[in-house]
Amino acid sequence: MKVLWRYTGEAPINLANNTKLFHWLPQNDLLAHPKTRAFITHAGSHGIYEGICHGVPMVLIPLFGDQADNAVRIESRGAGIKLDAVKMTSKDLSNALRTVIYDKRYKENIQRLSSLHLDRPVEPLDLAVHWVEFVMRHKGAPHLRPAAHDLNWIQYYSIDVIALLLVATFLFLFISLKSCLFCCKKCFCKSARLSKKSKSKSQ
């Protein structure tokens, strides 16, 4: 079994004789090769879509962000195996690779996902060509231009709305504070008058 290693930094050392190194190789082209049997990935969304598109079962090693969620979704559909990047060993990786390669269920599940993903009324390339030609036919298609391009910066960043909300908030706080002070003053004045009356009566 030939292993293709696509790397971007320094070349790893102590690799097996069946491993071929590529400093750079388009991942999509590599996955599209008919002899590709498995895909070791960090479970980024683009890699996941490419793996599904070409029907290649995956060994998923998520690192951060949405990758753990992507890996769980693929594993739950029986199209790959998720490994923990911190706890896994070389034996775990080897076992996972052998499982996704030799267990036919993984290939069948990823091919089912691939057929669902690729079953669409218009091919993406045809759709892209259609919209490019549409824009050319209609001289830039100004009717599709977002209205946000016609707003000034105050409207674009909603400065007027923010200012209104700030004024309303400060006004509410000011009225609330004044009301509290007025009530406190009334209560203290009333208690002071009552204490004065009680003192005068006692004298």
Instruction: Please give the radius of gyration in angstroms.
Output: 34 Å
Structural class: mainly alpha
Average pLDDT for all residues: 85
Describe the main β-sheet briefly: 3 strands, parallel
Can you tell me the residue ranges where pLDDT is under 50 for at least 5 consecutive residues?
none
Query: What's the order of the H and E elements?
Result: EEHEHEHEHHHHH
Strand content: 5-15%
What is the straight-line distance between the termini?
111 Å
**Which shape, going by the Cα principal axes?**
elongated
Quaternary structure annotation: single chain
- Can you count the helices? 8
User: What portion of residues is helical?
Assistant: 55-70%
- Give me the side-by-side strand order of the main sheet: 3-4-5
Task: Let me know the number of strands.
Answer: 5
Characterize the structure shown.
- The structure is a single chain.
- The chain is mainly alpha-helical.
- It is 57% helix and 8% strand.
- The strands form 2 sheets. The protein has a 3-stranded parallel β-sheet with strand order 3-4-5, sandwiched between helices. Strands 1-2 form a two-stranded parallel ribbon.
- Helix 3 (67-76) links the parallel strand 4 and strand 5 (80-82).
